[in-house]
Amino acid sequence: MGLMISVLDDIYRCDFSRLEDLVVQGVHDLADLAGPSWAEYRICLKARKPKMTCLKEQEELCKKSDHIVSKVLRVTTGALEKLMESRPKLKVLQLFRNPFAIINSRTESKGYPVKDFAANAKNLCQKMFWDYQGSLELQKRFPNRVKMIFYEDLKSDVASKMKKLTSFVGMEYDEQEISSLNKVKTNAGKVSNPKVKQTRISDNAHWWRTHISMTRYKQVTEKCQDVIKAFNLTQFEDNQRLTNLAIPEMVLPQHLRI
User: Fold this and answer.
1) Looking at the chain, which terminus has fewer C-beta neighbours within 10 angstroms, N or C?
2) Range name among 37-41, 64-68, 83-87, 227-231 with the lowest pLDDT average
3) Any idea of the CA torsion for 22, 25, 31, 35, to the nearest 10 degrees?
């Protein structure tokens, strides 16, 4: 974790000298994965220049940017304290999602390397609870610089929620850009029903409720009690109530709403 924080600090200083082995071929050189800010880097690579030369050019673009944004997977929120101390302009958006939806997505995704989903749920919710506690501590230390976000809350009204989030990080709200980005890309499901993909796209926040088995639901419930209580998730007693989408699956506390 210490190395990860050190690398993040390099990125926020626009110093890419240590990143040569970390920039993965097949990721940053693909437009749909790396985004428009890496366009010049891709052009540089196609010109057959050395990777480090292209990264040095990318540094200069980075230094001219108004904002530097990183999506960091698996980082523990509490580990960001020293980085936030040294970078007073740094803000953190901690993204959460209903753990039942995550487990269902993993179950329905091809090639996900897990057989014991009960154990997977335990690890998932333990990490989620640590991140929740870490976020609360960071909020106390750094007021107005840390915000916790739930995917389900964001998807309930993307336009108005994104206005609040762009304001929080000091960016301009662009309605057209937000609209273009508000599209669901699903993993390839292993189920045979062709309607599942369309269901995921049309209601990606809640579709799990009509697909997860009651056995799997109970297994996750047993392993995720701390998260269920902290996030005020609904505990469904039977399949009829679980699949009744008129019953909300969570009533988030005020401090967890955007």
Assistant:
1) N
2) 37-41
3) 0
**Residue 191 is which amino acid?**
V
Q: Quick one: which of 50, 69, 51, 40 has its CA closest to 170?
A: 69
> What mean pLDDT comes out for the span 185-199?
60
* Threshold 0.85, pTM exceeds: yes
Residue 2 token pair: 């210490």
Q: What does each C-alpha distance from 213 to 6, 13, 61, 97 come to in angstroms?
A: 42, 47, 49, 19
Q: Which residue(s) pair with 92 in the sheet?
A: 146
The pLDDT tens digits of the residues spanning 15-24 come to 998 888 887 7
pLDDT of res. 192: 45
* pLDDT tens per residue, range 205-257: 998 999 899 999 999 999 999 999 999 999 999 999 999 999 999 999 999 99
Buried b (16+ CB within 10 A) or exposed e, 81-108: eebbeeeeebbbebebbbbbbbbbbbbb
State both tokens at 174.
């662009």
Estimate the crossing angle of helix 99-108 against helix 214-223, to 10 degrees.
Answer: 130
- What residues does each domain of the chain span? 2-63, 77-256
CATH topology of domain 77-256: Rossmann fold (3.40.50)
What is residue 118's three-state secondary structure? Answer: helix
Q: Is 116 exposed, middle or buried (0-12, 13-18, 19+ CB in 10 A)?
A: exposed
